[in-house]
């Protein structure tokens, strides 16, 4: 037993080394774990809880492996901001599993207590990012998965050690010619001949993947943008409060949440500096928020009173008229009410 415990740190370090050297293969294993979670749904006892656990663990594995890859590439970030984002990501990935577990143990009362606690934590953490650490827009998910494909390409191209390094590290693998100012790679830092792409080292440094080089904060955030982001961040708590006041089955919480989302997006669009102050990644996040407005068609009470029956009729028509569609549409119809009640609620943002 003692020898096993002694070998655990070595196994852990070996795993980290393997992930940093094989990011694409690690990504394939992570995807397999997610597909297993879909396969488990409805096939064993407590399948919802088990499948959600597997899905949660697969997302946390992605988060951990991305952290290992960043560490191996010496990507630097503000320690406090990174810690807040990591904890936010952990909560986001595990909140549904925690809600299902608490509901099974302590019923609906325990579930709603946990929901309120989680949303209070998320709201406070996101407001800290906005007001204290000057985040222009809080992304969802808080920490986006790394583009493993770009990492693999850079590794094959011999520019692996140029990813995310600072000026001092860059100077250690290259030098600048005094008269021409040209940047030349040192002989000892050159990759094997078979892996060289013969491109100038400064061009490789300029063409780093945007995941590593793009700054999260744009120009100084305007008052309208600050109000817009504050509205979006506090929307889950406002929605929960409105449910407590007006009830869970009324239209008022639904309308209030939709109005907050529309107001937030309109404030961003009406700000002239939005395009210049936000990065491409952040503008994409705003576009994603606009697309997510379609989820209101699947949220209560709209789903129960309008879209639910129409969606079932559409799935039945597909299963009756398309070959093999029944294999997909029938399980989807069976589990759609569960997914709707656990995923398409207003405090999911």
Q: Label the structural class.
A: mainly alpha
Instruction: Determine the N-to-C terminus distance.
Output: 45 Å
Helix content: 55-70%
User: Unreliable runs, pLDDT <50, ≥5 residues?
Assistant: 158-170, 202-219
Overall mean pLDDT stands at 78
Number of alpha- plus pi-helical segments: 14
**From the alpha-carbon coordinates, what is the Rg to the nearest angstrom?**
24 Å
Q: Report strand %.
A: under 5%
Output the helix-strand order: HHHHHHEEHHHHHHHH
Main β-sheet description:
2 strands, antiparallel
Order of strands across the widest beta sheet? Answer: 1-2
Count the beta strands. 2
Shape call: globular
Q: Would you give an account of this structure?
A:
The protein has 349 residues and is mainly alpha-helical. It has helices at 2-21, 23-40, 47-72, 79-131, 148-156, 167-173, 201-206, 210-213, 223-246, 252-269, 274-277, 280-291, 302-321, 325-343; strands at residues 174-176, 183-185. The longest helix has 53 residues, at 79-131.
Short description:
The protein is mainly α and 349 residues long.
Topology:
Blueprint: H1 2-21, H2 23-40, H3 47-72, H4 79-131, H5 148-156, H6 167-173, E1 174-176, E2 183-185, H7 201-206, H8 210-213, H9 223-246, H10 252-269, H11 274-277, H12 280-291, H13 302-321, H14 325-343
Antiparallel strand pairs: 1-2
Helix pairs in contact: 1-3, 2-3, 3-4, 4-9, 9-10, 13-14
């Amino acid at each position: 037993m003692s020898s096993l415990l002694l070998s655990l740190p070595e196994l852990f370090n070996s795993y980290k080394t393997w992930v940093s050297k094989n990011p694409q293969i690690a990504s394939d294993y992570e995807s397999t774990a997610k597909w297993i979670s879909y396969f488990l749904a409805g096939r064993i006892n407590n399948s919802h809880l088990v499948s959600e656990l597997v899905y949660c663990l697969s997302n946390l594995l992605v988060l951990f492996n991305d952290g290992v890859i960043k560490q191996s590439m010496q990507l630097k970030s503000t320690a406090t901001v990174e810690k807040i984002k990591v904890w936010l990501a952990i909560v986001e990935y595990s909140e549904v599993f925690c809600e299902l577990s608490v509901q099974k143990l302590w019923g609906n009362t325990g579930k709603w207590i946990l929901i309120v606690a989680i949303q209070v934590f998320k709201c406070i953490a996101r407001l800290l990012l906005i007001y204290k650490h000057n985040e222009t827009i809080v992304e969802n998910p808080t920490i986006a998965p790394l583009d493993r494909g770009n990492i693999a390409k850079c590794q094959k191209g011999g520019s692996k050690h140029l990813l995310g390094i600072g000026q001092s590290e860059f100077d250690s693998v290259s030098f600048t010619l005094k008269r021409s100012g040209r940047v030349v790679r040192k002989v000892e830092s050159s990759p094997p001949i078979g892996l060289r792409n013969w491109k100038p080292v400064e061009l490789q440094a300029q063409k780093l993947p945007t995941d590593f080089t793009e700054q999260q904060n744009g120009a100084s955030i305007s008052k309208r943008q600050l109000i817009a982001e504050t509205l979006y961040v506090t929307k889950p708590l406002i929605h929960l409060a409105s449910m407590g006041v007006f009830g869970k089955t009324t239209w008022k919480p639904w309308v209030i949440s939709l109005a907050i989302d529309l107001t937030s997006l309109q404030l961003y669009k009406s700000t002239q500096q939005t395009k210049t102050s936000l990065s491409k990644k952040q503008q994409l996040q705003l576009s994603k928020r606009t697309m997510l407005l379609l989820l209101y068609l699947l949220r209560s009470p709209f789903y129960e009173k309008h879209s639910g029956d129409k969606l079932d009729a559409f799935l039945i028509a597909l299963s009756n008229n398309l070959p093999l569609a029944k294999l997909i549409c029938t399980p989807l119809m069976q589990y759609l009410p569960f997914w709707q009640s656990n995923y398409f609620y207003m405090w999911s943002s």
